[in-house]
Design goal:
The structure holds 3 protein chains of 3 kinds. By secondary structure, chain A is α+β, with helices and mostly antiparallel strands. In chain A, 50% of the residues lie in helices and 13% in strands. In chain A, a hairpin with a 2-residue loop joins strand 2 and strand 3. The radius of gyration of chain A is 23 Å and the shape is elongated. By secondary structure, chain B is mainly α. Chain B folds into 2 domains: 163 residues, Methane Monooxygenase Hydroxylase, Chain G, domain 1, CATH 1.20.58.1030; 58 residues, 3-Layer(aba) Sandwich (Ribosomal Protein L9, domain 1). Chain B has 6 helices and 5 strands. In chain B, the strands form 2 sheets. Chain B has a 3-stranded antiparallel beta sheet with strand order 4-1-5. A two-stranded antiparallel ribbon of chain B has the order 2-3. Chain C has one domain: Methane Monooxygenase Hydroxylase, Chain G, domain 1 (Up-down Bundle). In chain C, helix 5 runs antiparallel to helix 6 and helix 6 packs parallel to helix 8. By secondary structure, chain C is mainly α. The two termini of chain C are 36 Å apart. The chains are: A alpha+beta, B mainly alpha, C mainly alpha. Chains A and B meet through strand 2, helix 2, strand 6 and helix 6 of A and helix 1, helix 2, helix 3, strand 1 and strand 4 of B. Chain C: This is DNA replication complex GINS protein PSF3. Chain C: Its main location: nucleus. Chain C: It is found in: Nucleus. Chain C: Belongs to the GINS3/PSF3 family.
């Protein structure tokens, strides 16, 4: 999957905004939004929040986990974090510090992920529980890991080949 | 908006039929689930024409409404953004199905041929036409560029053998939507033993597609 | 997003071959040392080192995999296939000691593919060969992964030059994951660029104009 598609999925998440305009409730296909009143916080999907922000129609309230102290505790959505840091950094306290921290945490987590991938292959395991992995993390290693597991599977089925040789197809 | 769904709602649920009427929001969710499942499953999944048709209907209905709105309307631009997003998912979903049909066409057609009566069809009527045409074009092409110059006994290629089958033993990433108990995990090597795992709601796993493919069709797990 | 308009058929890996895979077609051209176990009448012209009309029994020669596989029969001995040295015990010991030191491109480049294909020919060593292929792959996995996931925006030719063709393919898929992520992170992913097809087309047009 393209990272932009992971980002697309992150844009579906909900974020709180403080609008500076008024508008009645909107009946979208995916659900109702609003009403919007100046100064009153309201929940909207990220794609709308970013659009309103770009048109200077709102301020985005950063999600509460988006703080230096909290980022290290939970696996955060890289897609959402980057979207907010890119398009709404003026609404995020200590944005630069968070940006550096996010990068460091990402590098650590990816290094750990590779370690687990290697042990999954080495031990020839059949199942792994990965509750802490975010979609962006899965996505960076997906093709490589799945292709490798496939190759390994085929090489392992060679071991059974020993007994049933002799009939090859015509190709 | 719910009036637009009245003629779709009754047959919209593919699996089990507990939900008789879907809200438009649930419908969009179904489309997104189908999209990701199709993107990540190694084989072509059963078609979800009923979802596709209902979404199309929703979009047409909404676009017709927007025609009547005057330019510069604040709400209209938000509606248009949402329509664009839904359209993107819809086309990406249909495109990934077409790509799989191109990759596996002889097997897809074979499966469709051997399907028992009453079983849901793998392909939508449009996809079926596409697959047949793709098959015919491939055969014509192979004949024209090479086969007709071969000795008579070597002029056929059995496409079912020549085109690789989807590998159901591929691993997939998944998230559990409905908890499952006692899923049997087959051993990978001779010195391992088979064991069972419980899939808790919301948990994520990496395992073989073959083990959980029925759960994908039933909607109990979501490929990610 | 996925701009690829043509999806090449992947090689089969293991004992299966994919008929429409270019990699597998190249693989079947790999030459194997064989010994004829009967006379091949009137085919002497194929063996340039002899003047006789027939290929006599006991002749040692090299045949491509596809031909050896086609002629090989278990019941009636037509030819026997000799293991290329990289699959023999001596080399297997080297692989067990440290699979990462071996230049699989030079020894291959179809080390895994050809090795798997050899299992079609009867040999008491087959189980050991199959085991060696698997263990070599596992032993080299970490290095293939790390090099493919660390090399961003640099010349990768040194990293891939010792990889077998299968590992090279994996290296590429690792790189595409890394590059996709990196350019997304830098915000380049959202910019549209002309496809390489269009660029090449323009280049060609330029050349037409110049000539």
């Amino acid at each position: 999957m393209d990272p932009l598609e992971v980002e697309f999925l992150a844009e579906k998440e909900t974020v709180k905004i403080i609008p500076n305009f008024s508008l009645d409730k909107i009946y979208l296909i995916g659900g109702d939004l609003g009403p919007f009143n100046p100064g009153l916080p309201v929940d909207v999907p990220v794609w709308l929040a970013l659009n309103l922000k770009q048109r200077q129609k709102c301020r985005i309230v950063p999600p509460e986990w988006m703080e230096v102290e909290k980022l290290e505790e939970i696996p955060f959505s890289m897609g959402l974090t980057k979207l907010l840091l890119t398009h709404a950094s003026d609404n995020i306290p200590k944005a630069d510090e968070i940006r550096t921290l996010v990068k460091d945490i990402w590098d650590t987590r990816i290094a750990k992920l590779r370690l687990s991938a290697d042990s999954f292959i080495r031990e020839q395991e059949a199942h792994a529980k990965l509750d802490n992995l975010t979609l962006m993390e899965i996505n960076t290693i997906r093709t490589f890991l799945l292709d490798s597991l496939n190759c390994m599977y085929k090489l392992r089925s060679n071991l059974q080949q020993g007994s049933s040789k002799g009939q090859f197809s015509n190709y | 908006m719910s009036d637009a769904l009245s003629d779709c709602g009754s047959d919209a649920s593919h699996d089990g039929g507990q939900e008789d009427v879907m809200t438009p929001a649930e419908l969009i969710e179904k489309l997104e689930e189908a999209w990701l499942n199709e993107k990540f499953s190694p084989e072509l999944l059963s078609n979800r024409s009923e979802v596709v048709e209902c979404v199309m209907e929703q979009l047409t209905h909404m676009e017709a409404n927007l025609q009547r709105v005057k330019k510069g309307d604040a709400k209209a631009s938000i509606h248009r953004m949402e329509i664009d997003r839904i359209r993107f998912v819809l086309s990406s979903y249909l495109r990934s199905r077409l790509q799989k049909i191109e990759r596996f066409f002889p097997h897809v057609l074979e499966k469709e041929k051997s399907r028992g009566e009453g079983e849901p069809s793998l392909l939508s009527p449009e996809e079926f036409a596409f697959a047949k045409e793709y098959h015919a074009n491939t055969e014509t092409y192979l004949k024209a560029v090479a086969l007709k110059r071969m000795p008579p006994n070597l002029q056929t290629v059995e496409l079912l053998k020549a085109v690789p089958e989807p590998c159901l033993d591929s691993f997939v990433f998944l998230r559990v939507k409905e908890p499952q108990e006692n899923i049997l995990v087959e051993p990978e090597t001779d010195d391992q033993r088979e064991y069972v795992v419980d899939l808790e709601e919301g948990s994520q796993h990496l395992m073989r597609y073959r083990t959980i493919s029925p759960l994908v069709s039933s909607g109990a797990v979501q490929l990610i | 997003m996925e701009s690829q308009s043509y999806f090449p058929v992947q090689p089969g890996v293991g004992v299966e071959e994919n008929f429409l895979s270019l990699d597998d077609i190249l693989l079947t051209h790999e030459r194997l040392p064989v010994r004829t176990e009967c006379t091949f009448p009137r085919l002497g012209f194929l063996d340039k080192s002899s003047d006789s009309q027939d290929i006599t029994e006991g002749t040692k020669m090299e045949l491509p995999l596809w031909l050896s596989k086609g002629l090989y029969e278990r019941k009636r001995r037509v030819l026997s296939v000799e293991m290329p040295k990289v699959y023999r015990e001596g080399w297997r010991t080297v692989f067990t000691a440290d699979p990462n030191v071996v230049d699989l491109h030079k020894m291959g480049p179809y080390y895994y593919g050809l090795g798997s294909q050899l299992l079609h020919f009867d040999s008491p060593e087959n189980p050991d060969i199959a085991q060696a292929l698997l263990q070599t792959f596992i032993g080299r996995f970490r290095r293939t992964m790390d090099s493919s996931q660390n090399a961003y925006n640099e010349d990768t030719s040194a990293l891939v030059e010792r990889l077998d063709s299968l590992e090279k393919r994996l290296f590429k898929s690792g790189q595409s994951g890394l590059n996709g992520f990196q350019s997304w992170e830098k915000g380049q992913a959202a910019q549209l660029t002309a496809s390489s097809l269009v660029l090449n087309y323009r280049k060609r047009k330029m050349m037409d104009v110049q000539s």
